């Protein structure tokens, strides 16, 4: 059974799909189709850390690290990392209590299934974690929020390793 998060959902299990009471047009930093009003998610970890803008910064910094790492970049088949960044941002926003745009567009996250085509060994896992660590550190979150976010990334990365070594 997957490990529960501090918010009751197991890793990789999306919260039930439900739209906010009053969806609005996306703001300038929200991925296309993302409901904008972060205040609709008050009380969630998503809102506590700064909503869409924080997750945009996180994914932007993460993929800048990936792009600058030729060996690791080879794991990403798309020429343009932009779509992967949007998918990660939408997934993280939903996972942490924000808009359900990820599931609305792509269905259930099925993280293990979606990562199966890629050989994720301990070296790939550790490289992913190194780039994500730099991205998390760049946010300057309060210690408890940073630790909560990092704990999830560490557990998720280990759970997605699918190749020995």
Automatic annotation (TrEMBL):
It comes from Arthrobacter halodurans. Gene3D superfamilies: Globins. It holds the Pfam family Bac_globin. Keywords: Heme, Iron, Metal-binding, Transport. Residues 13-22, 30-40 have a biased composition (Low complexity). Belongs to the truncated hemoglobin family. Group II subfamily. PANTHER family: TWO-ON-TWO HEMOGLOBIN-3. Signal peptide: none annotated. Residues 1-41 are annotated as: Disordered. SUPFAM superfamilies: Globin-like. It comes from the Bacteria. This is Globin.
